[in-house]
Amino acid sequence: MTAYEPTGAPGAAAAGHGVMYDAVVLAGGAARRLGGVDKPGVSVGGRPLLDRVLAACADARTTVVVAGPRPTARPVTWAREDPPGGGPLAALGAGLRHTSAESVVVLSADLPFLDEATVLRLLAALRDGDADGALLTDADGRDQPLVAAYRASALRRELDALAEQHDGLTGLPLRRLTGALDLTRVPDPVASFDCDTWDDIATARARIREHGHVLDEWISAVKDELGIDLDVDIKVLLDLARDAAHGVARPAAPLTTFLVGYAAAQAKGGEGGPEAVAEAARKAAALALRWAEEAAAAKSDAAPDDTPRTGPDAG
């Protein structure tokens, strides 16, 4: 077993784009440490935990959620182990039957900080090596087999062998599977954080409000709520809001950013994307700067003349 560290620039994980993969999300656990509450539906940052995980694997060709059907932010395929509550291996086997890609990302539904970049790192680690899978390890170095990318052929091989040995997969622990696989480890104490207790939920809710994360979290939540799939350049919009507030008036900031969004949505017959947002923001920012320049000029023209006066009218 090996450890995998990403190399290159911060965007190097994007090399994982173009990898065809399916995703299986296990969301049917009993959540006993949470008092049996519907854990995938618990809200963190205004979004159910399940929807946060689904956003991280949005590029999957097929996403299978093993649980009872429920409303989700994006369409998925539903599956259920038989009997329900048969444990993670039985759930994985049920979900895997609905996949066809050679690479399969397997996730639990309680990962508040999982993101697309982490999924791409796992896929890159799998692609770049000869192992059967690549999984995250947590802050204590423990394996997290439900935050991992696997070769589907290896999963099917070992699951079939286990089912034959034990007359099915019901009740078997995950270690029976992972112990038979050659795995690469990808350290990530943040993305591997899962919510098993109410203290974990409280920690996650507090962490997303930290200064360095809150805007990204809020924008992601709003996009999910409004059904928008658009890359937002937060810096461009904040710069625009600043220019409008300083050059015109404070209430101009939210109104201007709203109008920029509306203009971008109308661009190219309603198919405007990030480029349309950037162009509309550029035009609006230039206008705000013209207003600021005119205001400065007006103040200069209206300033009293400090030149000493002489002659009969002085005094």
The biggest beta sheet reads: 8 strands, mixed
Helix content: 40-55%
> Mean of the pLDDT scores?
84
Indicate the radius of gyration in whole angstroms. 27 Å
Low-confidence stretches: 4-16
What is the terminal separation in angstroms?
93 Å
User: Can you list the strand order of the major beta sheet?
Assistant: 1-10-8-9-7-2-5-6
- Tally of alpha and pi helices: 10
Structural class: alpha/beta
CATH architecture of the largest domain: Alpha-Beta Complex
Strand content of the residues, in percent? 5-15%
**Number of individual domains:** 2
**According to CATH, what is the class of the largest domain?**
Alpha Beta
Strand runs, count: 10
CATH topology of the largest domain: Spore Coat Polysaccharide Biosynthesis Protein SpsA, Chain A
InterPro entries: DUF6457, MobA-like_NTP_Trfase, Molybde_CF_guanTrfase, Nucleotide-diphossugar_trans
Region (Disordered): 296-315
Pfam family, one: NTP_transf_3
Protein name: NTP transferase domain-containing protein
